[in-house]
Fold this protein.
Amino acid sequence: MLLIVEQFLNGLQFGLLLFLLAAGLTLVFGIMDFVNLAHGSLYMMGAYFAATFVASTGSFLLGTLLALAATLLLGIVLEFVALRHLYGRDHLDHVLATFGLILFFNDAVRLIWGPAGLALPLPAWLTVPVPILPGIHYPAYRLAIILVALAVAALLYVVVMRTRLGMLIRAGASNREMIGALGINIKLLYTLVFGLGAALAGLAGMMQAPILTVQIGMGENILILAFVIIVIGGIGSIRGAFLAAIFVGMIDTLGRAFLPDLLRKILSSAAASTAAPALSSMLIYLLMAMVLVVRPEGLFPAGRR
Amino acid sequence: MTAAINARNAVAALVVAGLLLLPLYTSITGNIFALTLFTRIVIFALAAVSLNLIMGYGGMMSFGHAAYLGIGGYAVGMLAAEGIGSGFVQWPVALAASALFALVIGALSLRTRGVYFIMITLAFAQMAYYIASGLARYGGDDGLTIYDRSDFSGLINLSNKVQFYYLCLACLFGGIYLVSRIVNSRFGMVVQGLRSNEQRMQAIGFPATRYRLVCFVIAGTICGLAGALLANNTDFVSPAVMYWTRSGDLMVMVILGGMGSLFGPVIGAIVYLVLEEFLSQFTEYWALILGPLLLLVVLFGRGGIMGLLGRLSRG
């Protein structure tokens, strides 16, 4: 029981983290029609910024806030210098250009921070176990991730659905020429959206950093997961991304937690312990393949495309 | 127009001559390294040529093409580990396994279009990657060492560097010839027509998915051959050859050289891998230069190197 509740919460936490990453990706994709493989690099940069700023300021909150601002700035600069010239090009051009950016960021990080990973230590007040149910404790930090991510998701919903900026974003997604003709500064809007996506990716990176180590290439595996999520959810749909992210987070976490035991009932224990991680990693891709075969546009296709 | 063709042909002819004469150069200078490097390049060029068939001519943006490199490689490695060393068994199995994989994932993936197609092929390749990581009997994550190269019972000795190089080169030229024959056949015309306007082709009465699927399987099979060669070249196969960044590398080679041109992928593979090798001799941080370079190619060099050559000779 304890294990099930804990793994369930872990799944939720991972899913919400994935949502932060996928939300930025799906926004950029849905609005600018831009495939950004370098989104995972922004996630990595967020984690590195956080590790650096927390170490130099000595304060976890201040450090992460600074890191968030730095990732936002990096995203805006990136968009301004290079990526805005690629809007309207073929998707393949996007893939190639941002693939180049991944190479660049990985080596830039290696040059600046060195090949060894960094650690982002938690402050004492986030390491205590919190009682959530009678007799069940859950780490405060993981709980904090769940709360922060839920708050961000709610904020995102409010901004996109209830504010003027969100209205412009949605209008830009459905017809960019028209909104430009109506006198909206579409370039500025795009830059803002890209910066927002970058900040979300950075936030996901810095929240994941204390759990895993901060290392080069940390954004690559999770980027693919984020892509899987936006494809399952339907590209451009934030609601789809949210549901798919929770779903994928659950499957991944629960699969890793319980598949080895299940497999051990059928296979020898040695075979099970090697097959289980591979199988649980595969589950997600299997899910995506099934979804695409049944619904080639994802579960929640965002309008016409 | 003729001038454009001439400039491209001149470069292509130069590349062919250079590749053919390379062993002569190494035997004169004793520079074995160039031969090792170019064996690898020729193998990747073959993979890029096969990707170009579906990407450049067929308009199918597969982001999982490296899976066939792994499947071809694992077919060779697993059979070798089980004591079947004959290339006459290993290689047909490698080709058949790649074809079968392409058939299955193609039949499923071709239901989708555009970015969804890019992502679903990526997902299938990642699945293959994780399957290979789970093969405990064949090394799992750590990969599988191949102790003996494929044995062609005296016909050709793959352990001889020069013979192996020429075998790879023959496969590359064979692949290019095959692609050129396909592209210029009725079948190839239909596939290219589907890239330009699917609705019209279907209105004329061509079954779109069936044509695309056959093209997809042919490309996968050719890439499986590249995988078998690659495994023999490195004497090793690991899940890493199927990782998605490898698929990205192959895409970069095709686009860099020029999509939809016969020799483009070969030139792309040469430029990309030589540049990687060259830059890594100067600095450990070669990707710091290569990455922005790719960005510049996309921003300013449409149509890749072949496109650039075409524009240059047109003035």
Observations:
- Chain B touches chain A through 47 residues (CB under 8 Å).
- Chain B is about 75% helix and 0% strand.
